[in-house]
Structure of Murein biosynthesis integral membrane protein MurJ:
Amino acid sequence: MTERNRSLVSATALMASGTLISRVLGFVRVALLAFVFGNAGLQADGYNLAFAVSNGLYFLIAGGVLNTVLVPQIVRAIKNDADGGNAFVSKIVTAILTIMAALTVVLTIATPLVMIPYSGPEWRSPELAAQWQSVLLIAYLIMPQIFFYGLYVVLGQVLNAHGRFGPMMWTPIVNNVVSIAVLVGYFLIWGVTAPEQSNQPFTTAQAVTLGLGGLAGIVLQALVMIPYVRATGLKLTPRFDWRNAGLGHVFRLAVWTLAYMTVSQIGLMVTTNIVSSASTLGTQGAGLTAYTNARLLWQVPHSMITVSLATAMLPMVARLAQEHDLHGAAGEGLRTQKMAATVMVPATLAFAALAFPLSRILFGSGAGAFDYGFTAWTLIAACVGIIPFTVQYICLRLYYALEDTRTPALQQILIVGVNIALALAFVASPLASPQWLAPGMALAYSLSYVVGVFISWHNLRKKLPDLDSMVIIRHLVRVGLCALPAGAVALAISWFTRGWQDSLLLTVLITAVAGLLGLVIYFGMARVLRVREVNDIVATVLRRGGRKRGQVERAGADSDDEWYPGDDEPTEVFHFPEQSMDDPKTVLMPRIGAELPPAGVALEPEPPVDPGTFGIPDAPQRAAGPLDTTAEDEHPIRVKAGQELGHRYRLERPVVRREGSQSWQAWDSVLGRQVMVHLLPADSAQAESVLYASRSAAIATDSRFLRVLDVVPSATVTEISDPARPLPEADSWPRRSVTPAEPDRLAYVVTEWAEGSTLQDLLRDGPLTAVEAAWLLHELADALSGIHEQQIGHERLNPDTVVITPTGNVKIAGLLTEVALQPVDPHTDDNAEELVDELRDVHDLGRLLYACLLCRWPGGPAYGLGEAPIAGRSWLTPRQVRAGVSPLLDELCDRMLNPTPRHRKPPIHSSAELAGELTRVLAGVDAVAELEQRVRQQRSGQVTRADQRLPLARGIGPAHPPAPTPTTPPTPTRPPAPQIMVRSRSGETTRTAAIPERPPAEEERPERRSAARLIFPALLALAFVLVIAVARIIGGAAPSNEGEAGAPAQQQGTESAEQQPSEPQVHEIVAARDFDPQGDDQTENPDLVGDAVDGDPETAWRTLQYYNNPELGGAKRGVGLVLDLGEPVPVSTVDVLLGSGDTDLELRVPDPVAVDEPPMQSDEDWRSVASVDGAQGQTELTLDPAEETRYVLVYLTRLPANDEGNYQGFIYEVEVSG
């Protein structure tokens, strides 16, 4: 399962589950409507007409604007604005709600006028005057929902932009519950409408009940969103300073979206006008109710799957578009289309096959027992357009993500025009009887999208050239082949049992059997035809019982102590602080040679391995082999910077030079982007193999592979006399003279260029953390699993062909081309010589994991990394070289590199298997943000480079550890300290890296108290004293019950000293977990939590880095650690060892305190019992009175500045006493 598919499935799961429950309740609501009013008649159609008009007006005014235009703008504001988007979002929300409020008032007053276009003229005839007045009364009462729908959607889009998709899909449940309660009340008071009464008007009491009940539901639905928005940390305040606030761009985009919705509403008006007349023609017919119910049915999979997928896709594509990654945006679009089609194709066939039994179950009871067939025929007609509508809907969202609202508006004019033309043609045809109006309108609507989807796709490909229509067509054919047998079986069951469908119970049973059998056939065919998206969905469901999030935390926490029976004894164990991207000055690790010296022998450090640049300092090598040393005038390729290939690709900077080829960074003057160009002599034997390999690499569609853009078998280079794009600075070029290019014919291959840092670059600054290494390997394995299914391998995976972009994403360079350019891998090893394709790639993935954990290359030295240490004929495992390595990753590394893994574990032979193992290890955690920060620091030069660190001896720590100095240096994030001695398992004493000194005690740090910080606690203390005094006065007469559990703390304090312990008892911390309820994924470095409770003052849990504001960037109220004490115990003191720099922290307990599980969703579920502002180093929080609790939250609300000028907190140790 690819990571992009998994991210869509996972992001969709929460939304789809909420939508499913909401839809189930929605069906209960419409089933009650059908039960009470029936499926045809003036009462049923009048009720639906009143609601349809208010809903339609909302979507006309703002629905499309708010649902589509806001997310990209809010994403940009959150990413780029210094305040995290607070000001921009407050202004735009204020502006939209102000406009919505004004328009709602106007429309409510003008309700009789706005109802006219949506209703047939027969409604306003004298014979139906009473019915029309009752419908107007309901419409008056329900019209204010326009404002509350707007409030709901605005807040929902703010949450979506923050990556929180669930609330918007879950809160409609409130609306449905209220609506169901209103209809149940209506039924209990007035009962079921008899068939002969179905055309009678509503009484005033009935109309008021239905209208106000509908309004109450949407009001509550909107208000429920407010706490979720507050939980994001976003501080929304009314802002009316709209001038120069950047809202003009938003409203200019909204103009075309409004035009789109206006055109759509014209089509809706025409359709509603036609179908609403069915019940006014003197006979029952398929009118607005049948049309609405059928539309509700087929929109269930659309709203659950398509809308959820598109909602999850929109922010991702918006971010990719911001980065000008159109290939990635197209890839996300194709993945979303395929995932949606995987569900919508079988759903369409299911609706067509089971239309009548489904309609009988939902709409065939009570007053609807005689007219549910109208809904069934309408649903069958709608099935024609479900797939085109799905494709068109996702295309529409792609347009909006690209901030193009004009094109879809113009396309919608065509779609609505076709819809109206077909609708009017049907009305004029002999088929236009009342019984067929709704099916006819559904068919016209469907056919209009069949026409529109081709135009929309064609125009979208102009913006996203990588949208391959054949990919979608092939997928639809494969899914259709899987679904057709299932649909045929379901149709056969429905047809042959139609005589039994008078019984509701039998109909439910028949439908369930047909549906389940169809699903079994569909999934079986999907497995046979290897429809990957279906298997992804099944795997997601089956994985629900898998490993939980805490697994990575436990792995990290236990890694220092866990030892497998039979593990080889490490000759030397070198302890050092865990590498952190935020702590570049940490001494990372020694260079361990292939042959380890005896303990205690200090050797001189190894010289760093030359990365072999091409005359360019610090240039990435991007090649599997060493550079060629052929003299410049003897090399078969003689080109220079500034020359152009094919009048398009201008050579800018050489990247690598091999014996028979060269690779250059170049500029694509047509598309205006950087590319990589591989040059070879056109008449060379190697050129043919490279060109063939490059064409073959096009089979990889995953955006994590750098694509081949162009393959040219023969061309000449030309000079550019006046280049439009300036060349890079001269200092970045090699100092050499180049003769003018001769008209030699060159073959060349053009591939994508990925901005960022190679893994080789990052590893120069030390190993990755466990989560970073696991996530990086997971991305690589997940991407490779797709090409391995095609029997293709990369075969040159190494730190130089793995690129991490500035956004923290992973790219793989050189698929197939690297092997062709470098047929002999000079850095292979004996274990990999005979391996090919997938097996070779899995082996190389093991070497990459080894390098990420140790900065050592099995088979090295290579890529700037030292040689992996060997014991006998095999490499030492990472845990045998370095203490602190996760045992899970150590085991995976061994299973990839060792033909006979330890502990009788099976070797890993496939990338898909490795991706699955790493999925369980990660349990939903990713390291995008951490890798993004690493790349930024590495590219900005903030990270201490390897050659700037202290010299390190092989295997035993610093050769000459720094002696403590009497002077007081500037306080670093992790201050140096004297080294200590530890004893290895073999009993030999070894040196370890220095443990940082404990930060200065509280009494040593300068006093920092502002007047406000003194006044506020004083007021709180005064209020507390007053409350206690009042409580004592009120409760003073009550008899004291000594020893009672509820005795006041003051009485307990008067007990004899003999009954109280002389010192508080230290409680054991059974477990700990990170607390980040306002984060996007609600995690805050979970793999480091164990470092705060391991008894080691050297290790620490740290927060993420926050920007611009010490109060967690203004994005969160706080983060911290939840401590589990195993059972409720008295807690009077909590000692926290913090880092240097002023930190504000609180101590909290659950509210209420007696809970079985700690509340992790909001800090409002915790009660503050102690706090300290400006704390450093050893900090004591005292509870007075003591609290009896099982869970304690150490909550950081203000963070100190770190060396990079950002804000980050550290907790080295926590101790709880009572």
Remarks:
- The radius of gyration is 34 Å.
- The chain has four domains: 3-543, 557-599+763-940, 635-725+741-754, 1060-1217.
